[in-house]
Amino acid sequence: MPTYRLFPTLVHSARLQSGRWRAFNNQLLRECLQLRDDDEAGRRWSARNYPGGYTSYGSASRMHRVSPTFAALEKKLAPHVKTFVRALGYDMTGRRLEMTDCWVNIMPRQVVHGLHLHPLSTISGTYYVQTPKGCPGIKLEDPRLDRFMAAPPRKVGAARPWVVLPAQAGSFVLFESWLRHEVAPNPQREERISISFNYGWF
User: Fold this and answer.
1) C or N: which end of the chain has fewer Cβ atoms within 10 Å?
2) How far apart are CA 130 and CA 20, in angstroms?
3) pTM of the model
């Protein structure tokens, strides 16, 4: 009898664009830092919910609708999202998948992004704006982890209960929104800056 690999978890990661990406990325960086300076409500929300860091999740979570630069990011992501949708086998006939949320995350030294998922969304992802050398990537958890009962240790090189994908400026990652993920504490003095987003079809 053959051994089957069933129920794969698909994740899509790539460079946003080839060639001259730095000018666009630098504009996003300027707007992320300016948003933090201007967003008093977001800084208050972050003090309560994102200790030591800044996120616009609780204050300015639809940046693609208020900033032409973030709208351009949405446009550049669109073909990659379509590719991922095809790989997932979604039937989008008569349906439209839209970016519903888009927000900024700034992680200074020792700030952590705890384990979570994105309820009421279909596809989620992150674009990396600034990634100092040695900063943590995104850690994706095997969705079966809470069912690993009485499992012995795995050999070196075998499938792990989690995978860490490196964070690199100019790149992004897409995953289904039910996939739990986290970011370990940033050990670097320079800030790790990313833009997260959700897509939904209803």
Assistant:
1) N
2) 16
3) 0.94
Query: Does the residue 1 lie in any domain?
Result: no
Single out the residue of 98, 72, 67 nearest to residue 16, CA to CA.
72
> What is each CA distance from 55 to 3, 62, 159, in whole angstroms?
45, 12, 33
Total number of domains constituting the chain = 1
Q: How far apart are CA 23 and CA 14, in angstroms?
A: 18
* Structural domain boundaries enclosing 39: 11-145+156-200
Residue 25: CATH number of its domain: 2.60.120.620
* Separation CA 52–CA 47 (nearest Å): 7
pLDDT 10s digits, 84-138: 999 999 999 999 999 999 999 999 999 999 999 999 999 999 999 999 999 999 9
Look up residue 187 and give its two tokens. 């050990």
